[in-house]
Amino acid sequence: MNGLMQQQQLLISSLLTHAERHHGDQQIVSRRVEGDVHRYAFRDLVARSRRAANAMTALGARFGDRVATLAWNGYRHMELYYAVCGMGAVIHTMNPRLHPDQVVWIADHAEDQVLCFDMTFLPLVEAIAGRVKTIKHFVAMTSREHMPASSKIPNLLCYEDLLDAASDRFDWPVFDENTASCLCYTSGTTGNPKGVLYSHRSTVLHTYAAALPDSLNCSARDTILPVVPMFHVNAWSLPYIACMVGAKMVFPGPHLDGKSLHDLFESEGVTLSAGVPTVWQALLAHMEANGLKFSTMRRTVIGGSACPPAMMKAFQERYDVQVLHAWGMTELSPLGTACTLKAKQVELPREERYAIQAKQGRVVFGVDMKIVDPDGKELPRDGKASGELLVRGPWIISEYFKGEGGQPLVDGWFPTGDVATIDTDGFMQITDRSKDVIKSGGEWIGSIDLENIAMAHPAVAMAACIGARHPKWDERPLLVVVKKPGAELTRDALIAFYEGKIAKWWTPDDVVFVDAIPLGATGKMQKNKLREQFKDHRLPTA
Ligand code: ADP
Q1: Is residue 255 a part of any domain in this protein?
Q2: Which pTM does this prediction carry?
Q3: Number of structural domains in the chain
Q4: Which residues line ligand 1 (CB under 6 A)?
Q5: Pick from 158, 180, 212: which residue ends a domain?
Q6: CB–CB of 84/90 below 8 Å?
Q7: Nearest residue by C-alpha to atom 9 in ligand 1
Q8: Active-site positions?
């Protein structure tokens, strides 16, 4: 017997309709590429999204076609999120920090029809315009007065002109909720980038789950500033969550330095933010140097790489901002786990609470996870056994776009490539990415633990731990460190800092000081580059 409930397709356009009806006057504030601050209300977002849908239709974009963006976090990008998905086309958010060759490869692979871009990326678009095979229209996301006088791009269109010429009446079509909505490519550190194609259903379900109190904890009383870019897995769903819960949105545009961010947090009363650890480092350094505080910020989501406990402490103890450590992947839309305490843990001694918070957290309902040994046998959830992390659920990939990379699932589970433990309370902790794990004498050493300890040293700005070749042990940990400006630190002092904090044989064999650690397109440390750079490093223990 079936239940007698209504069958309604879960569509992204329904988020927009909801926001218009119930949060029409809520604000969206954007620092623009043009330099000024723009503000309007959700009802303006909805009206302009309808115009944008008409404009894209007029350019020939049809159901299922890909419309690409190269854009910062801002209201025009948000309009395109909703307009393109709402009309049944697919928004393809490209990462502008990629090499032009990669952008061409991705645009061709996605068969993008239209490319909308922020003016910052004009040189990039000029570099690729003559090379991409399928893009018919290039749209500069700006107004007439900011259009370049001349450009190497044939028939360059102006976004505001297109919207002015379009009607603000558009009936969002109703279609199957499994229709594709959004396409994101993974960074492709190994092999070609792979496309992850979300559906309306997966996006709406993920949005519900991500907004929950023990997930990102978002409400109509929040002012949310996503530092995480809208080209990095949908800014972790925050532009969708904003419409679902009616939160005020604040977009930083291209201005991501510590000062610009802090100014915006203060002037707009931001309560919640989100980003990768490297962004927060710059903000914290700026605040420390200038003796600044937050007046309204209460929570920040940190994920994308492990959040060093020293950063957590700085946020919580010095600035009264609660850190929400979260783990996810492009293939997971992205949210998998978030770290919030259970009732019985709230009163634990401070250091015990920090030890829990350093974990990546508990699964959000909808995500099922397990760890397995190299033979695929499930390992116990005892907080000790560590193995490859596998996940499944309705917002987790089933296969990559165009079948790239073959069939990714193993018995219906997606292997994440992360190595983790799961404790009896269900808290998952990543010890490493499988390709970053250091294999010393047949045993694994988790690089994240070693980096976290280094980051707790007051003279360390950034630390990466990689496996260096060793004649006896195969690999031994080598610590690559960027010192804070003006700080004094020696190799021996840093190695001594590990004493008593970790099993003795995990202690790094050597430390090298560098000016900078290479960061990838989403702000993560590129350990593959470091491994290449230090492949001939001679350890003193060798
Ligand atoms: P990529 O970095 O490969 O482009 P993603 O942005 O999807 O792709 O990154 C996913 C990976 O980032 C995860 O598999 C994991 O290794 C790492 N990651 C994400 N969040 C965390 C976290 N909180 N702690 C440690 N690692 C994390």
Answers
A1: no
A2: 0.91
A3: 2
A4: 186-187, 303-306, 325-330, 334, 360, 416-418, 430, 433, 522, 524
A5: 212
A6: yes
A7: 329
A8: 186, 331, 439, 444
